[in-house]
Amino acid sequence: MSRFNNHCFETPRTRLKDAFAHIDATVQRVSGLDHATMDFVMCGYENEPPLTDMSISPSQVAKELTSGSALWQALECIHFKLRFSGITRLLTHQIVRQRIGITFSQQCSGEVDWRHHDMLWPRNINVNVAVYSMGSKNAYARQVDAQVPLQEARFLLPHCLETFIYADCTLATILNFVSRRCCTMTNSWEMVTLAERLKNAVCLKIPEFKDIFRNPCEHQQCLYFKAKPSDGIVFPWLPDVVHAVKPNPEPLYNVTHAEGSCGYPVVKDEYWIGMETVKKGEYDADCP
């Protein structure tokens, strides 16, 4: 099967949908919860090289890792294959800043025609202005049809198009990522939501890991509490409940993070063919 799709001269089809509702973090695979990791954990406490019974269950290994007796580096023995979807390239550009103990594979806009990608719309922006993003998307399609290379045509793509990214990382990296990205004062709502859903996905897969996730905001150890006004760092939101002990002296928005990003009504699905809105039935009939 070819790696390249060919949609030349097709009219762009777009489903506009609520951005908050579609963010998803999926644990595809967990490895390392086995006897070898248990040997690694027990190594420091034995007189001879430990040889753990190969029949030990993943649950037993997970309990040992979270018991408090295992050294931190043992968490690097547990590897996760993750899929992040229902997100924009605005978010993937932030995700890939996490570099230690993690690697990524992302959908490419230079080899894939994006004319039919769905559009994720934030709740606090009036959906009426989506027509401008639709215009950019349709202009992109016209350039591709005119044989402008995808690498150049993608300059016209709006940031709100839906994409996905895969990651391979350790448990230690996930804990670090979630602890840094769950702070509502220093991250976008899209990132905070992804971090929360990643934590939920990991705990659903391995319930024993629930207690090792730590929110530094609750212990006044996040950047919001550590930043000094003399550094020129200004956080835009009014402090939420967790951060209310330290009022923000110069908020840009007179609302909290939740009120300013996700406190608006859900964006209702819209269906577009080219620059025209259509009913769902007509949209579905036009899809191949």
Q: Helix coverage percent of residues?
A: 25-40%
For the residues shown, what is the average pLDDT? 89
Task: Please count the helical segments.
Answer: 11
Question: Which structural class do the helices and strands define?
Answer: alpha+beta
Strand content: 15-25%
CA-CA gap between termini: 18 Å
Radius of gyration: 23 Å
User: Which regions are unreliable across 5 or more consecutive residues at pLDDT < 50?
Assistant: none
Total domain modules:
1
Order of helical and strand elements: EHEHHEHEEHHEHHHHEEH
How many beta strands in the DSSP annotation? 8
Outline, from the CA principal axes?
globular
- CATH third-level topology: Alpha-Beta Plaits
Brief summary of the model shown:
With 288 residues, the chain is of the alpha+beta class. It has one domain: 2-Layer Sandwich (Alpha-Beta Plaits). The protein has helices at residues 19-22, 35-42, 58-65, 89-95, 130-145, 150-153, 171-181, 189-205, 223-226, 257-261, 280-286, and strands at 13-18, 24-31, 79-88, 102-106, 119-121, 162-170, 270-273, 276-278.
Describe, in plain words, how this protein is organized in 3D.
With 288 residues, the protein is α+β, with helices and mostly antiparallel strands. It has a single domain (13-32, 78-277), classed as Alpha-Beta Plaits (2-Layer Sandwich), CATH 3.30.70.3180. Helices cover 32% and strands 17% of the residues. It has helices at 19-22, 35-42, 58-65, 89-95, 130-145, 150-153, 171-181, 189-205, 223-226, 257-261, 280-286; strands at residues 13-18, 24-31, 79-88, 102-106, 119-121, 162-170, 270-273, 276-278. The strands form 2 sheets. Strands 5-1-7-8 form a 4-stranded mixed β-sheet. Strands 2-3-6-4 form a 4-stranded antiparallel β-sheet. A hairpin with a 2-residue loop joins strand 7 (270-273) and strand 8. The longest helix is centred in the C-terminal third of the chain and has 17 residues, at 189-205. The model has no long low-confidence stretch (mean pLDDT 89).
